[in-house]
Amino acid sequence: MRLSEFDVLVVAELGRARGDAIVADHVLQRLRGRTAAAALEAGEEPRVVWLALCEEFDVPPERRFGPDD
Prior knowledge:
The chain is mainly α. It has 4 helices and 2 strands. The chain has a two-stranded antiparallel sheet with strand order 1-2. Helix 1 crosses helix 2. It is globular, with a radius of gyration of 11 Å.
């Protein structure tokens, strides 16, 4: 998954403003106590970060890869 795909999924599932706030501010234990933004900046794969967000925010499996999948 590319970072651009990560961004599209965040917006589709969480909305632009809420998604931006969550990525910047919400600490995820699955990502070693980092925010999604910090994990991405540290080189974590976008797919790993996205799946951590999905788990944290109870995104159903059928919506984890976008509306077309």
